[in-house]
TrEMBL record:
<dbReference type="InterPro" id="IPR000276">
    <property type="entry name" value="GPCR_Rhodpsn"/>
</dbReference>
<keyword id="KW-0716">Sensory transduction</keyword>
<keyword id="KW-0807">Transducer</keyword>
<feature type="transmembrane region" description="Helical">
    <location>
        <begin position="235"/>
        <end position="258"/>
    </location>
</feature>
<keyword id="KW-0472">Membrane</keyword>
<dbReference type="GO" id="GO:0005886">
    <property type="term" value="C:plasma membrane"/>
</dbReference>
<dbReference type="InterPro" id="IPR017452">
    <property type="entry name" value="GPCR_Rhodpsn_7TM"/>
</dbReference>
<keyword id="KW-0552">Olfaction</keyword>
<keyword id="KW-1003">Cell membrane</keyword>
<dbReference type="Pfam" id="PF13853">
    <property type="entry name" value="7tm_4"/>
</dbReference>
<feature type="transmembrane region" description="Helical">
    <location>
        <begin position="60"/>
        <end position="81"/>
    </location>
</feature>
<comment type="similarity">
    <text>Belongs to the G-protein coupled receptor 1 family.</text>
</comment>
<feature type="transmembrane region" description="Helical">
    <location>
        <begin position="270"/>
        <end position="290"/>
    </location>
</feature>
<feature type="transmembrane region" description="Helical">
    <location>
        <begin position="197"/>
        <end position="223"/>
    </location>
</feature>
<keyword id="KW-0812">Transmembrane</keyword>
<protein>
    <recommendedName>
        <fullName>Olfactory receptor</fullName>
    </recommendedName>
</protein>
<dbReference type="GO" id="GO:0004984">
    <property type="term" value="F:olfactory receptor activity"/>
</dbReference>
Length: 311
């Protein structure tokens, strides 16, 4: 099919991380190592929390949800990258590209909202300890997680509707290792103003607003900690892990969606996406477990608990 002097495409070529096939294979093996590590560490964290009843509270409930996101995020891109490197076939259909964008955005937006709820949980635990169990109860946790999935799903579906309304023209080459809206829009034939406006609205709602709530929560936490006895310092120490995760996630997200863009995709997009899709999901469980004595103790007990369940 043709539009003007350009043919309309329904299949794209992903250039990957390198144009050298040997380097691409090497990088894919490194990604495979990241993938296995992320899968193993997040699975261990989920099992450790699930099998230890003293960890069945809101903080670890949110942590399990974060680990589930970190389990799924690498699965969006790394298997496709490995398949392309091994087969030499680096094409992806418009349908496959759309599916990749959906899950990539859905999980990313869910993590934005979830990190804000995790900060709110720590804020209530430290600043309002006597009312904590009344405010952050089981029903409240379920409502917060339901809101996370619902808002993320609706915003992602709306964005995907606009993506599918765009016509893409040749050349059908995406200078990336995954399908991502900014890189894909460079191949569009017509105007993308509606999608650009939606991207700005989504960035404000799901990036800047949650980040503002997180910063406000920790501002209040810091003020409270400076006024209280040492009893709550243990609670504040758990916040440091969350702050590291927030910095890693929001730092990469803001580099990806809030910096000026040229007419072509550049290597910065790839570097930031590598960090988000492969490195962060691997680091998050390590950050939470290595800095949390309760989680480390639960992980040490996990083999014996699993053996007792199998007997």
């Amino acid at each position: 099919m043709e539009t003007g002097n350009r043919s309309v495409v329904t299949q794209f070529i992903l250039l990957g991380l390198s144009s050298d096939p040997n380097i691409q294979i090497l990088l894919s093996l490194v990604f495979l190592l990241f993938y296995i590590t992320a899968f193993a560490t997040n699975s261990l964290l989920i099992l450790a929390v699930s099998f230890n009843h003293h960890l069945h509270n809101s903080m670890y409930f949110f942590l399990i949800c974060l680990s589930l996101i970190n389990l799924c995020s690498p699965s969006i891109t790394i298997p496709k990258m490995l398949e392309s490197s091994l087969s030499g076939k680096n094409t992806i259909t418009l349908g496959g590209c759309t599916a990749q964008i959906f899950f990539y955005l859905f999980l990313g937006e869910s993590e934005c909202i979830l990190l804000a709820f995790m900060a709110y949980d720590r804020f209530v635990a430290i600043c309002k300890p006597l009312r904590y169990l009344m405010i952050i109860n089981r029903a409240a946790c379920i409502r917060m997680i339901s809101a996370t999935w619902t808002v993320s799903g609706l915003m992602t579906a709306l964005g995907l509707f606009f993506v599918r309304s765009v016509t893409f023209c040749s050349p059908n080459i995406i200078n990336h290792f995954l399908c991502e809206i900014p890189s894909l829009m460079l191949l569009s034939c017509g105007k993308t103003s509606a999608l650009d406006v939606l991207t700005m609205i989504t960035t404000f709602m799901l990036l800047l607003i949650p980040l503002t709530l997180i910063l406000f929560s920790y501002f209040r936490i810091i003020i409270s900690v400076t006024k209280i006895q040492s009893g709550r310092y243990k609670a504040f120490s758990t916040c440091s892990s969350h702050l590291i995760v927030v910095t890693l996630f929001y730092g990469t997200a803001m580099l990806l969606y809030m910096r000026p863009r040229g007419s072509t995709a550049d290597n910065m997009d790839k570097i930031v996406s590598v960090f988000y899709t492969a490195i962060t999901p691997m680091l998050n469980p390590l950050i939470y477990s290595l800095r949390n004595k309760d989680v480390l103790r639960a992980m040490r007990r996990l083999p014996s608990l699993l053996l007792s369940c199998c007997q």
